[in-house]
Amino acid sequence: EAQVTQNPRYLITVTGKKLTVTCSQNMNHEYMSWYRQDPGLGLRQIYYSMNVEVTDKGDVPEGYKVSRKEKRNFPLILESPSPNQTSLYFCASSPRTGAYNEQFFGPGTRLTVL
Amino acid sequence: AQSVTQLDSHVSVSEGTPVLLRCNYSSSYSPSLFWYVQHPNKGLQLLLKYTSAATLVKGINGFEAEFKKSETSFHLTKPSAHMSDAAEYFCVVSFPGANNLFFGTGTRLTVIP
Q1: Which pLDDT belongs to residue B56?
Q2: Closest residue in B to A46 (Cα–Cα)
Q3: Nearest CA in chain A to B34
Q4: Closest by CA position to A98, among listed A34, A35, A33, A31
Q5: What does the pLDDT look like over B21-68, one tens digit per residue?
Q6: Maximum Cα–Cα distance for chain A, whole Å?
Q7: Chain A residues within 8 A (CB-CB) of chain B?
Q8: How far apart are CA A72 and CA B23, in angstroms?
């Protein structure tokens, strides 16, 4: 089944403890992206990647890192999480960049930073 | 500047009555427009998309949307609401040359039995 998977789905952690949220897609998509969703703000893009080893900042990149060593994986790294990073995170992928392409979303990761 | 605005944060309708979720965009360019739906505790699913072909776009589950360039709008409609339509709906815009999508802030649809 074609899908985007994220792990973990739920995570509670403490300030400053490094964490990684994994994202994987099995559709051979070139484009991958991370979003955070906060009440009243919709989805805001954190980072995106147009292909292996090509990443760029979205609208809210501060406090996050990403890497794209393989086409299928796009992990999101929080080196020193803070409470304002408590949010619902979505990974998405798309066949290619460009205005017409639908993005396929993972199920989401709910992160709480205490 | 390019942006997308969903005019209502919450819409409530009775089952069997029409649904109208409003979306306006601001752009100097011809955009691609999408509506996504998010059911509780789920990811986002594409309902429909407009990419410069027919201005009336039909999507899944009986939804449709009409692109009106003169009004810079892309409102989502459905003739008869079903209980399973209760969800959050996002209007999303992409612009030529852009590598990302612009999301509206979402409209929560409640369907009253």
Answers
A1: 93
A2: B100
A3: A102
A4: A31
A5: 999 998 777 788 999 999 988 889 999 998 777 889 999 999 999 999
A6: 40
A7: 4, 31, 33, 35, 40-45, 48, 50, 56, 58-59, 90, 92, 97, 99-100, 102-103, 105-108
A8: 33
